[in-house]
Amino acid sequence: MTTHAISLIPGDGTGPEISATVQKVLEATGVKIAWDVVEAGADVVEKYGTPLPDNVLVSIRKNRVALKGPLTTPIGTGFRSVNVALRKELDLYACLRPCKSYLGVRSRYSNIDLVVVRENTEDLYAGVEYAPDSKEANEIIGWSKGKIVPHAAISIKPISRAGSERIMTYAFDYAVKNKRRKVTAVTKANIMKFTDGLFFDTAREVAKRYAGKVEYEERLIDNMCMQLVQKPELYDVIALPNLYGDILSDLCAGLIGGLGIAPGANIGQGISLFEPVHGSAPKYKGMNKVNPTAMLLSSVLMLEHIGEKTAASKLESAIAAVMAEGKNVTYDLKPRPDDPTAVGTREMGDAIIQKMRSL
Ligand code: NAD
User: Fold this and answer.
1) pTM of this prediction?
2) Closest CA to 7 of 71, 58, 60
3) Are residue 173 and residue 64 in the same domain, yes or no?
4) I need a surface site. Which of 149, 175, 234, 252 has the fewest CB within 10 A?
């Protein structure tokens, strides 16, 4: 049996307790994993002088696969976000966020099965920003010939053909591989004719290569938000530039019942990092309280990625069954958050292990 070398960043806040549970559950799948545990985040700044020590990147570059707990973004260290820095350093250009309804998870909707593919490196997240009255901002205000008022702060939105091409190719390849029927590209190209216009132009070109295999359509982001709330069943794989993708992923997480169960993957050229969508929920740190499901479902994506498809499907079925029963679940999956029958992170993990054994 193959042993998979995988980097693990336990994260901070509630990250370490969720990660410990996830390691235990993954061990019970029978898949052999040699964990390379590396630390990052706000809680290690004192120890390493940075929230993103070099050995983290070295480990992920070596192992090519990483699982990550949530990381708190410390304020005032020069890092906008460790998560954004990791995605940029490793060029993890595609952010994959499947949003699927599970029985037992309270939501206004049922039967949601959407996949958000978000571009991860360009757009307003590129970090090209100028403070009010800076030399650069004043220069740009000068070029704008009155379109930008004096003293404005400025953020630049770069979108390239190469960046759009690789994210759309990823979305279509994902659709083919996972037998999905349609890809919807989403922007605001009626207003941002050059940047979002280029994204759509490129998307159309990529779509031609998949004609007859996967349908293609376009929507504007404002309309898409309304459509997803009114008739989410019309959509399948949704591909977007960075900022729209960020916002729409949370909207889609809301459709399936919230952050506690929303998994994610960041994919680059031969390197992949799997992580829950939620943050480090620091107010619950050390309380054995939060839901491990989002990181467990991220691990399901990871197991599929490393070719352990049987284990992935068994784990997903066990998670689904435990949530459907609604007994051994954390507070967020109970009818009321103060429900005294809610179990902790560890106990929910143990229930999932028990369930895997009985499947
Ligand atoms: P958060 O996702 O940490 O928490 C918001 C609320 O959602 C929590 O208070 C809790 O009520 C609920 N929640 C989150 N995860 C849950 C879980 N697993 N089970 C049950 N309930 C859960 O968002 P925040 O408070 O805005 O951010 C806290 C920190 O996390 C910040 O520093 C932020 O930058 C960081 N963050 C990190 C990531 C990441 O690592 N990818 C993502 C988002 C936010």
Assistant:
1) 0.92
2) 60
3) no
4) 149
